Amino acid sequence: MTQRDRDTNEVLRECEQCNKETVHNVSLRLDSTADESEVLSENTKYAKAPSREVTCTVCGTVTHEGRFQHEE
């Protein structure tokens, strides 16, 4: 499968469960970063950080990645 055959939200990467390189679906989400001691209560709903959820299309293993890491 070439890059052109994959959707824009899919990447080819090593899967630890499958023990081989497989296609993974990538989605973005916003995780709460608020700790009540760090953020004023009225600002808690705005304290979010982006993360990636990466799911193997073969075995279904889901991994979460905090800060984005650029993939070539």
Q: Could you outline the blueprint of secondary structure elements for this entry?
A:
Blueprint: E1 10-15, E2 20-32, E3 48-56, E4 62-65
Antiparallel strand pairs: 1-2, 2-3, 3-4
Explain this structure.
By secondary structure, this protein is mostly beta strands. Helix content is 0%, strand content 44%. The chain has a four-stranded antiparallel β-sheet, with no helix packed on it. The two termini are 16 Å apart.
Could you provide a short overview of the structure?
The protein is mostly beta strands. The protein is 0% helix and 44% strand.
Task: Give average pLDDT, whole number.
Answer: 81
Radius of gyration: 16 Å
Number of strands: 4
Q: What proportion of the residues is helical, as a percent range?
A: under 10%
Q: Beta fraction of the residues?
A: 35-45%
Classify the oligomer. Answer: single chain
From the spread of the alpha carbons, the general shape counts as elongated
Order of helices and strands: EEEE
Distance between the termini: 16 Å
Structural class assignment? mainly beta
Spans where pLDDT lies below 50 across 5 or more residues: none
In which order are the strands of the major sheet placed? 1-2-3-4
Tally of helical runs: 0
Biggest beta sheet attributes: 4 strands, antiparallel
